[in-house]
TrEMBL record:
It is found in: Nucleus. One of its GO terms (biological process) is DNA recombination. Keywords: DNA damage, DNA repair, Nucleus. Gene3D superfamilies: DNA double-strand break repair and VJ recombination XRCC4, N-terminal. Its main location: nucleus. The keyword DNA repair applies. GO terms for molecular function: DNA binding. This is XRCC4 N-terminal domain-containing protein.
Length: 113
């Protein structure tokens, strides 16, 4: 299993957060999972996205799994593999002090006709 780590700055709800992402890949089975640490430089929250979570999300939005994994990897690590995708982020506060991180692909104006 190969692991890569990345640190990126994201803006959500008008605030700056830092996202530390560990991506684990098992090439032979095309299994990917993410370990996340989100911080506002004062507090930190951690969570994970398993391969089965990715499969369930992919099925819910009717997206090709490999494409969804690549876009999720790009959104969570802010690496651009030539796709020029732009992502929007939202961080929601939950009652128990936890945070929920959401991301979505954003259409750029020049792509809208």
């Amino acid at each position: 299993m190969g692991k890569t780590k990345s640190l990126s700055s994201i803006t959500a709800n008008g605030e700056t957060f830092f996202l530390f992402t560990t991506t684990a890949v098992e090439e032979e089975d095309n299994v990917v999972s993410f370990e996340l640490v989100l911080t506002d430089a004062i507090n930190a929250w951690s969570g994970s996205i398993s391969n089965s979570d990715l499969q369930a999300l992919c099925k819910e939005i009717k997206e090709d799994l490999s494409k969804f994994i690549e876009e999720s990897k790009e959104a969570l690590t802010q690496t651009d593999d030539g796709s020029n995708l732009v992502f929007g982020y939202q961080v929601k506060s939950l009652r128990d002090g936890c945070k929920e991180l959401a991301w979505k692909r954003v259409m750029q104006d020049e792509n809208i006709k």
